[in-house]
Amino acid sequence: MEEQNINILWVDDEIDHLKAHILFLTTKGYRVDTATNGQDALEMIEESPYDLVFLDENMPGLSGLETLTKIKESRSEIPVVMITKSEEEDIMEQAIGSKIADYLIKPVNPRQILLSIKKNVQTKELITKATTSAYQSQFGQITLQINDSFSAQNWADTYKKLIHWEIKLEEGDGAMDEMLRMQKTDANNSFYRFISKNYLNWLNNSEDAPLMSHQLMKNKVLPLLKSGEKVFLIVIDNFRYDQWEVIKKEVFNDFQIEDDTLYYSVLPTATQYARNAIFSGLLPQQIKEMFPQYWVDEGSEDGKNKYEAELIGTFFERFREKVKYSYSKITDVESGKRLLDGFHHMMNNDLNAIVFNFVDMLSHARTDMKMIKELAKDEAAYRSLTLSWYNHSSLKVLLQKLRNENVKVVLTTDHGTVRVQHPIKVLGDKNVNTNLRYKQGKSLSYNSKEVFEVKRPEQAFLPKVNVSSTYIFAKNYDFFAYPNNYHHYANYYKDTFQHGGISLEEMIIPCVTLKSKGV
Q1: 124 — pLDDT class (breaks 50, 70, 90)
Q2: Is 3.40.50.2300 the CATH number for 3-121?
Q3: Closest Cα partner for 104 from 124, 125, 131, 84?
Q4: What is the C-alpha separation between 112 and 92, in angstroms, rounded?
Q5: What is the SS3 assignment for 230?
Q6: How many Å apart are CA 54 and CA 343, to the nearest integer?
Q7: pLDDT tens across 13-24, in order?
């Protein structure tokens, strides 16, 4: 916002004594209107847009506080700076209670006035300039980091940096948005090549392998239980690192961080595979071989995660640990209420595993419901919607209850989600799964240069539905569309959030261990 576009109203019954100040602001490029009483000021505010009001506290007729109250009733968004002759406590309490933006004590000097304007009107502009400048200076370094990321940890660090700037640049005017999008696209293309080269080796005991879904219970939960801690394992389905970053400050009001890390989801980055891997401590093929009664194939009508409680039990049996545990899945307000009603019973368990499905429901609803699609039209809106959900969720209430208990909270997710843009054609028979980011079947037709293909599922520890089953995974912001009615579905699913494939957003995800500050 340029100075000449900033309109200020100065209200003071002795306005003639302030001519020098007003002239000073005019020479700085500000437009300043004046009023000598509250009533005139209110009429002027109704007729003209003002960016800031300087308001004398002590005026005859309508007092400064009364004028302030009426301004806030009609134009609550206008910042009001109260100018007073004294710092009498009751007057200042009333002014602050009426949400003044700032206050100055007479006699005011030009520097005070200028600082108040910049603080209350031009803050966003100054932040935008500083942020834009900082990102521009970091752009080349991040590009080098993308090109030099040769390990899983390198990529986690690179992704963190990209998300840091994406969230910071939201505060600005959008001038750098396109540059950041291009950089994220380049990063995802490079990340896809990295995963294509290394993923299968990771699953076969490579020393370079990062922490992955099937190792989470063993590495993050079991050590806490063995040390005698009561643990709440909270899994927010379909929850990305950037979404964690926007709710983090809310969570940290009550908890200390003991561990804040990023780990890798197994492929497909879909609930059936990734979350079953978390709870069982096994890869999907191993689950099917060892516990066929708990594995549900793609074509089945049964819920793909209906045996999660049982899979947790198999994990502790394999490690010969006697753990008293509970499992809950929260899919709506009622199930959240039942969870909170049973809080005291949960405190008798060693482990309470709780799945919150809301974020996953939100992302799928976004595909099918016009209203949600409008609400979550882009990444920033999606993050904002997540923060709004958290602040009104049973998860927040649960964490507030836990802040006074001697427990550890492991907060994590099974996979992330990505906003898809580019359709690519795939052909399959009626038994091919419906997911838009990965396909599994025996007769898939596709361009092998456009996908990560696994022709031998056992190499990726994936179950075979048929002897000739193949898995293919979409990269970056691609999604699969059938040739029949191709253009309709290409337009229908474009800009929707999907998961199952290979991207930074889907694969690199948060796992945080929290300890209550009150204990």
Answers
A1: low
A2: yes
A3: 84
A4: 18
A5: strand
A6: 52
A7: 999 999 999 999
Quote the tokens at residue 167: 């969230």
What residue type is 483 in one-letter code?
Answer: P
**How confident is residue 506, by pLDDT bands cut at 50, 70 and 90?**
very high
Query: Tokens 């006699």 correspond to what residue?
Result: 107
Residue spans of the domains in the chain: they are: 3-121, 125-203, 213-418+506-516
The domain 213-418+506-516 is placed in CATH, from the list 3.10.350.10, 3.40.720.10, 3.80.10.10, 3.40.50.2300, at 3.40.720.10
Integer Cα distance of 51 and 3 in angstroms: 11
- Please state, as a whole number, how many other Cβ atoms lie within 10 Å of the Cβ of residue 43: 11
pLDDT range class, residue 1, cuts 50, 70, 90: very low
Strand-strand pairing, 478-481 and 325-330: unpaired
* Contact (CB, 8 A) for 152 and 145: no
175-193: string of b/e by CB count within 10 Å (b at 16+)?
Answer: ebbeebeebbeebbebbbe
pLDDT at 98: 54
- Strands annotated E in 363-488: 407-412, 418-419, 422-425, 438-441, 452-454, 470-473, 478-481
Task: Spell out the residues 6+ positions from residue 217 whose beta carbon is closer than 8 angstroms to its own.
Answer: 278, 279, 281, 315
Decide: helix, strand or coil at residue 491.
helix
Reading the block at residue 515, the tokens are: 């300890």
Which pLDDT score is estimated for 396? 94
Q: How far apart are CA 361 and CA 389, in angstroms?
A: 12
Structure tokens at 379: 């990444």
How far apart, in whole angstroms, are the C-alpha atoms of residue 197 and residue 155?
14
- Looking at the whole model, is its pTM more than 0.90? no
Where is 469: in which H helix or E strand?
A: none
Residue 14's Cβ-count burial label (10 Å; 0-12, 13-18, 19+) is: exposed
Residue 197: CA count within 13 A, CB half-sphere: 11
Q: Please say whether the beta carbons of 384 and 390 come within 8 A.
A: no
Phi, psi of 355 (to 5 degrees): -105, 125
Q: Tokens at residue 151, please?
A: 């390990």
CA distance 176 to 360: 30
For residue 446, what are its two tokens?
């596709």
Nearest to 80 by CA among 120, 122, 25, 32: 120
Residue 303 class from Cβ within 10 Å (0-12 exposed, 13-18 middle, 19+ buried)?
exposed
User: Which amino acid appears at position 452 of this protein?
Assistant: F
**Tokens 């600082």 appear where?**
115
- Judged by DSSP in three states, 82 sits in strand
459: number of Cβ within 10 Å: 15
Cβ contact 437:474 at 8 Å: yes
Count of all residues that appear for the chain in the document: 519
Give the position of tokens 């550890």: 408
DSSP state of 350: S
CB 26 within 8 A of CB 32: yes
Distance of CA 236 to CAs 241, 302, 394, Å?
11, 22, 12
